[in-house]
Write a structure and sequence with these properties.
Blueprint (H helix, E strand, L loop, with lengths): L4 E3 L2 E4 L4 E6 L2 H4 L4 E6 L6 E6 L5 E3 L7 E6 L4 E6 L8 E7 L11 E6 L1
Parallel strand pairs: 2-10
Antiparallel strand pairs: 1-3, 3-8, 4-5, 4-9, 5-6, 7-8, 9-10
């Protein structure tokens, strides 16, 4: 049973922007820290950004200043606004709780940044 659905990925030129969305269920979302992860080919999945239930955020250095995570508690949805995209941002992007729950991984959304 898929409980998190990511969308919004695509092909974009370097320097461009994309906005990812992740629709979850209330039992996953409410009161929990949520995060965006990505996995590039041949690499391990990494946590990029997290947002706590009260809205504070933490970013990894690789995306700090370029990506913004946000959450909509009414829609049980989290977002990732990505700007100044680089070819090295090419990956499949996922959302999950932080720490992640293995049973919640969705199919992800592919982001490809061309140079």
């Amino acid at each position: 049973q898929v409980q998190l659905v990511e969308s919004g990925g695509g092909l974009v030129q370097a320097g461009g922007s994309l906005r990812l969305s992740c629709v979850t269920s209330k039992n996953i979302f409410l009161g929990n820290t949520m995060g965006w992860y990505r996995q590039a080919p041949g690499k391990q999945r990494e946590l990029l950004a997290r947002i706590f239930s009260r809205g504070s955020t933490i970013y990894e250095d690789s995306v700090k200043g370029r990506f913004t995570i946000s959450r909509d508690s009414i829609k049980s949805t989290i977002y990732l606004q990505m700007s100044s995209l680089k070819p090295e941002d090419t990956a499949v992007y996922y959302c999950n709780q932080v720490p992640s729950d293995p049973s919640y991984w969705g199919q992800g959304t592919q982001v490809t940044v061309s140079s």
